[in-house]
Each structure stands twice: as C-alpha cells, then as structure tokens.
C-alpha cells in the first residue's frame, strides 16, 4: 500500500504529523487550541457572572420590567450588535451567488 494507512497511523507523513501534508508543528496547533478554549471559557465565565448579578440584584430586573427607560435600554441592547456592522463593505466572495 503506497503511503500507508492513515486510519492506522502508518501514513507517509513526517513523524509527529497529524495528517499528510501538515506543514505547521503540532505544538503550534495545540497552543492555538488551548488559546481558543481559554477564550471560550472566559466568555462563559463572564456570562455566568453577569447572569448571576442580574438574578441576585432585584433592582436590575425591576428596572427593565417597570420603566420605559428599562424597556428602551433592553431594546437598544438587543439591536446594538447590528449597529456596529459596516454595511459598506462587500460580502466575501464565498457568500456571493454563483
């Protein structure tokens, strides 16, 4: 069998490579994976902290539920992620119809 069996781990790739044609080092790849997991974990932790504060401080839900300012702020916070998007830049070519 030319090149070996990838599933069995006997490919013709250099020693330590995860797949044939792998150019970057496995250490660099694992460092990126660790970095991504750290960022995701911190985002999840921050979300849990904000949710806990909103649940534990009774004035926050009362403000959003009982005043027009709270309702306006709630609607603004829902729309805020869409405001910063630059609509003047063309879409990537992968999103254009063929």
TrEMBL record:
The keyword Transmembrane helix applies. The chain crosses the membrane at residues 36-57, 63-83. Residues 1-20 are annotated as: Disordered. Keywords: Membrane, Transmembrane, Transmembrane helix. The keyword Membrane applies. This is BI1-like protein. It comes from Triticum turgidum subsp. durum.
